[in-house]
Specification:
mainly alpha; globular; Na+/solute_symporter_sf; Na+/H+ antiporter like fold; 19 helices; 5 strands
């Protein structure tokens, strides 16, 4: 057992000398000597003593980074522990980091998968026409479960620590976006077979892809996760309410039945994932690496099926008229979401403005497609399927522009470098 030097013991008895760590060169205790191969020169151990909450601790480092940290710690209620190399917590963090890297890699492929799904569904409908609408709910449940296993109770506690930024994003999501969709639908005179589905698409929660877009844009990823989580949970009430107000006079909307459907396919999987992440971490660690792939497959099915089933209507003259409202809606949503957060009385940081913009322009169109199929008719799911393709491509392109150091006011100069003078960022 290593013993402290005499001056330190005297200081321990007198209660003085603990305000600063004592840096000194002392030889390591015999129990801590590192034995290496004869051909390898023994590393120099640098040891520093410091006072911890429960007593003294000595941290030793070597000139060989592969050896990691060597030291002993006195813990309350347990014997002294000696660790060589990587600690268990570091192994867990590396495992989480690998899972995060795989999730980001699959998220980066999502726009390609979405575009390929749309092309395959429109050029060869049998590729996805075999998927019945009864599969939409389980597929969307798989997507929501992939969100739930990433959440914890502490994430929802952060809502009370960032009230202004979350309030701004929430208003943009459930006030600015539905009104914008209504104005665009009336301005472009959206076809009646797609009108209600288009408005419903503007009334759903934010998309989980917005978190990855915030990461690419160097925005506030934590705020994006909180916004997506809070709008997803509250969609049980907000989406049926907004749908009844905006399209109730055109198409009858059963708000109670819609709330029950959202409760089953959104809130239950998210709550299940939250419970697993809290009380069954080993299960989450097992399924988390494959959940991004599951979410990608489910998203592809929810997009490809309505596109394949309604191919003739989409490629007709009425279907082509739907393209302009969808493009205009997403372009305006990204722009207005950014400048809404920049208002003088709401002025947010640049990172928060980017996140709010992405969360406003990217919504859970898969949920809108499911609700449209169940309550409005299969043709009304077409705007949601088209919206997924447009918002994934536009959102990630915008995020890439921001990630390269440009601002939203610089985008015209990037597109037309000769006609628009350069502006200072």
């Amino acid at each position: 057992m290593a013993t402290l030097p005499v001056p330190a013991c005297r200081s321990l008895a007198s209660g003085h000398g603990f305000r600063r760590p004592i840096d000194s060169e002392i030889p390591p205790p015999p129990s801590l000597r590192v034995r290496l191969a004869p051909l390898i020169r023994a590393p120099t151990l640098k040891t520093a003593r410091r006072r911890t909450r429960w007593g003294w601790a000595v941290a030793c480092s070597t000139s060989f980074p592969c050896l990691g940290r060597v030291g002993w710690h006195r813990r309350e209620g347990s014997a002294s522990l000696l660790s060589f190399g990587v600690e268990p917590g570091e192994l867990l963090s590396r495992r989480d980091s690998a899972a995060a890297d795989s999730s980001q890699a699959l998220s980066a492929l999502l726009p390609v998968v979405v575009a390929a799904t749309a092309v395959a569904a429109l050029t060869n409908p049998p590729t996805f026409s075999w998927v019945p609408k009864e599969y939409y709910a389980p597929a969307l449940g798989g997507i929501m479960l992939s969100i739930g296993i990433k959440l914890s109770i502490d994430d929802f506690a952060l809502v009370f620590k960032r009230p202004l930024a979350l309030t701004v994003g929430y208003i943009a999501q459930y006030v600015l976006k539905p009104v914008l969709g209504l104005l665009i639908a009336k301005a472009f005179r959206a076809p009646s077979m797609f009108y209600a589905g288009f408005i419903l698409t503007c009334c759903v929660a934010g998309a989980q892809l917005s978190s990855y877009a915030s990461f690419l844009s160097k925005g506030d990823v934590g705020l994006s996760i909180l916004l997506t989580s809070s709008t997803t949970v509250s969609s049980v009430l907000m989406t049926p309410l907004l749908s009844g107000l905006l399209i109730g006079s055109v198409v009858p909307v059963d708000g109670v039945a819609m709330s029950k459907s959202i409760l089953q396919v959104v809130l239950v999987p998210v709550a299940l994932g939250l419970v697993l992440n809290t009380y069954a971490k080993s299960v989450v660690n097992f399924i988390q690496p494959i959940m991004p792939f599951v979410a990608m497959v489910c998203t592809s099915l929810c997009i490809g099926s309505p596109l394949a089933i309604n191919r003739n209507e989409i490629l007709s003259s009425h279907g082509l008229m739907l393209l302009f409202p969808i493009l205009s809606f997403h372009l305006a949503a990204f722009t207005l979401g950014y400048w809404f957060a920049k208002l003088p009385f709401l002025r947010q940081e640049e990172t928060a403005c980017r996140t709010i913009s992405l969360c406003t322009g990217m919504q859970s169109s898969t949920l809108a497609g499911l609700l449209a199929t169940q309550f409005l008719g299969s043709s009304h799911a077409v705007p949601a399927a088209c919206s997924v393709v447009v918002m994934a491509i536009m959102g990630l392109c915008l995020a890439s522009v921001w990630g390269n150091g440009s601002r939203i006011r610089d985008i015209p100069s990037l597109i037309f470098p000769q006609s628009c003078p350069d502006t200072d960022s």
